[in-house]
Amino acid sequence: MRPAPLALVAVVSALTFSTGAFPGPAPHRPVARAATLGPAALRFGRSIGSPTEGHLLGGTHLEDAPYLRVVPAYSGGDVRWGLEPLVTMIDRAARQVRRQFPDAITSVGHISRAGGGDLDRHHSHESGRDADIGFYIRSATGRQLLPSRFVQFRGDGSSVGWPGAYFDDAKNWQLVSALVTDPEAHVTHLFVAAPLRARLLAYAEKMGSPAAVRMRAAEVLQQPHGALPHDDHFHVRISCPSHMSGCVENPAARTRKAPAMIAHGRRGTLGHGLVTRPPTPSPVPATPAGPVPAPADEQTPDEDPSPDAPPAAMPVPIDDVDG
Q1: Which domain holds residue 126?
Q2: pTM score, two decimals?
Q3: Number of domains observed in the structure of the chain
Q4: Neighbours of 291 (CB within 10 A)
C-alpha cells in the first residue's frame, strides 16, 4: 500500500515545479531599456534637453509630397528631422489644407538636424520639437506663389519688398486651425508677428470658425519677446510627449546679447558678413480677407502681374527664438 503515496508525491512535485512555485532563473527581458527611455521615447524617438540646449535621437524625416515641399533656401544640410509627433502633425496639417484648397502646397523650412544640436541662424530647433513653416502666399488673382525663401508681410496682408504678393488669409488660417487641433501632437507655441496674428484671428471670426478653435489659436499665436517678429513664417513648437524622460519642456532663461551681436554669437554667420533685415514698416490695421486687385490701368481680368519669385535682393532672415 506504500507505492501509492509515493506516486502521489511525485505527481504533486511535478505540478509544483511546472507551475513555477519554485522557479528557476528568470528569462532576460529588455525591461531596463523600456524603463530608461519610457513608452513615448520608444515610439517617437527621443528629445533630450530643451529646444535651445538639446539633442534628438531616433527622429523622423520629413519627406516631400505633392502637397508639401521644403523651401529651397533652407534645404541644405538636411535639417528635416524631428520627433515623430511633430513631423506627422506637419504632414497631416498640409494634407488638411490641401483637402480644402486643391492647389495648396505647404512650405517648410528648418526643423532639426538628424541628431539635433546647434543650428546656424537659430537659438532653438535643437531637440526635434520646433519647425518653421512658410506662409501661404497668393497673387492678386488668387494663384499660389512658391518663393525660394520666406517672405515678409505687413499687417494689411501686403508683402514687404515683393509687389503683387499677398498673405493668403484662408490657407494660413486653415493651417493654424489644423495645427492647434491636431489629434496627436500638442502645440505650445506658434510664433508669428503681432499684426499677422490679429489678421488671422479677425479672419477666423469673420468666417465663423468655432470659438474653441479661435480661443486655442489665440493662446499659442504670439510674437516672441526680444526676438525678430516672425513676419515671414510660422515657428511651431510642440510639447514633450507624455512620460518622455530627459525632455525639458521650456528653455532656461538666457541672457540676451545686443541685437548687433546675435549673428556673431555661437550660431555663427550665414554666408559672408552680417545678415540683417531692412526695418519693417509700421503695421497697417488688418483688413478683410480677399483678393487685392491691382489698379485698373495695370491689370485686366485675365492678367496676373505677380512675379513667380521675390526680388533677389531680399535678405535671408535670422530666426533667433529662445522660448
Answers
A1: 43-264
A2: 0.71
A3: 1
A4: 13
- Domain harbouring 205, CATH code: 3.30.1380.10
Within a domain: residue 195? yes
For 32: left if phi > 0, alpha if psi spans -120 to 50, otherwise beta; the answer is: alpha
Per-residue pLDDT tens digits for 95-147: 999 999 999 999 999 999 898 766 667 778 888 999 999 999 999 999 999 99
C-alpha cell at 206: 469673420
Is residue 257 left, alpha or beta, with left meaning phi > 0 and alpha meaning psi from -120 to 50? beta
Q: Are 48 and 127 in contact (CB under 8 A)?
A: yes
Longest CA–CA separation in the chain, Å: 120
pLDDT digits (tens, 9 = 90+) for 222-245: 998 777 789 999 999 999 998 888
> Which residues, including other chains, have CB under 8 Å from residue 321's CB and lie 6 or more apart?
122, 123, 124, 130, 191, 224, 227, 230, 235
By DSSP bridging, strand 81-82 and strand 60-61 are: antiparallel
* Burial of 28: CB neighbours in 10 Å, binned 0-12, 13-18, 19+: exposed
